[in-house]
Amino acid sequence: MTTLWTIDRGDDGVVVATYHNPPMNYFCAQGAQELMGLIEQWKSPQVRAVVLTGAIAGKFITHYSVEELEALASDEAAMRAAGTSLTDGYHAMLLTLRDLPKPVIVAMNGDTMGGGFELSLACDIRIAARGDHRIGLPEAKLGILPGGSGTQRLSRLIGAGRAIEFILRGRVVRPEDALALGLVHEVVDDAAARARVIAAELAQLPPVSLREIKRAVYQGIDHSLAEGLAIESQAFLATMLTEDARTAMRAYVAEPLDRRRSFLERPPALPYRGA
């Protein structure tokens, strides 16, 4: 049972999770705990793709609740006793989201800063809404740093050189600037609708292929090239051993030569079985 997340399950296997915490749609401990429980549910084979979005106009997840953080920081003894458990739990939640063996698309339909942006960085595809919104990591302006994996995820996304400047200055940028920096994949008028379309397309693809693509990319990036290639080889083998791969490749080779390119541009929906 969740109170801050509303879940819509489509017949196509797409789950849309909408965050609602008025008036500012701040993230908080309860929202993170609820999301962790939902991620475990989304491991079900009936779920083929996930979309995250916000319920309040102009706000995806504005940032993590500064009220919660200030209350924690005000009790120095308790903070020292807790140590890194606060961020350790948040990191674990976002790693579980990233490693979900199916695509996760975030519709950043408004302000997405701090913890909200860190959540977005743990998603596979980021779609931002066009408008007077802000995206970024302003924590330095509050005397802290992006402790929900922002320093690590952003540097892996855009490189340490650009990330350090962005984080040191506590930058927040407009959607179009976020696109130019490589922080988001698309900027559109209706981020939620676009994310739903992409999720529906991905839900039609062989799920083992998508799972192994995620595994090869995310596990490989944290290893040497040689180790990453070994992970890729194992992932490739896992896909080649599926009936889905045989079904898709047979459908492709059955196409006339002059129609094969269109097949790859928009492959037909086939009866994929999954794992």
Summarize the structure.
The chain is of the alpha/beta class and 275 residues long. The chain has 13 helices and 10 strands. It is 49% helix and 15% strand.
Parts with pLDDT < 50 across at least 5 consecutive residues: none
Major sheet attributes:
6 strands, mixed
Helix/strand class: alpha/beta
Instruction: State the distance separating the first and last CA atoms.
Output: 28 Å
Strand content: 15-25%
Number of strands: 10
Order of helices and strands: EEHEEHHHEEHEEHHEHEHHHHH
Estimate percent helicity. 40-55%
Strand order of the largest sheet: 1-2-3-5-7-10
Rounded to the nearest angstrom, the radius of gyration is 20 Å
| Total DSSP helices | 13
Shape: globular
Mean pLDDT, rounded to whole units?
Answer: 96
Structure report:
The protein has 275 residues and is an alpha/beta fold. 49% of the residues lie in helices and 15% in strands. It is built from 13 helices and 10 strands. The strands form 2 sheets. Strands 1-2-3-5-7-10 form a 6-stranded mixed β-sheet, sandwiched between helices. The chain has a 4-stranded mixed β-sheet with strand order 4-6-8-9. Helix 5 packs across helix 6 and helix 6 packs across helix 7. The longest helix has 16 residues, at 225-240. The protein is globular. The two termini are 28 Å apart. The mean pLDDT is 96.
